[in-house]
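check these C-alpha cells.
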Amino acid sequence: MPWIRACSVDELDDGDALQLPTVPPVAVFRADGEFFALNDTCTHGQSSLADGYVDGDRVECAWHFATFDLRTGAVLSPPATKPLCTYQVKLDGDEVLVEIPDPR
C-alpha cells in the first residue's frame, strides 16, 4: 500500500481537517497534537467529515450531527450506525503521510 503526502505538520492546527482527493476521499484530522485519517464521507449521508466539527478525539458531521471516534472510526452517536474506515498515519520529518490502499 502506498503512502501519500497529506500535508506538512504546520498546515493543520488542532481541531482542523483537510480532505485528500483520493477514491474514496480521506479526511486527515489534527486533534490534541496527533494526526488521524478516516474515510471522509459520513456513513449516514454524503457529507464531508473534513467540514465537520472536531472536539477532542471525535468529529461531528455538519449535516445531521452523527459523531465518530477519530482513533477507531467507531460511531459515537446516531443517526449514523456504520463505522468509518481508518488509515495509518505517520510523520516523516515535517510531512504527514497516510497509507492509502491500492484501488485494485
The chain has a mean pLDDT of 95. The first strand starts at residue 3 and ends at 8. Residues 31 and 104 are 31 Å apart (CA to CA).
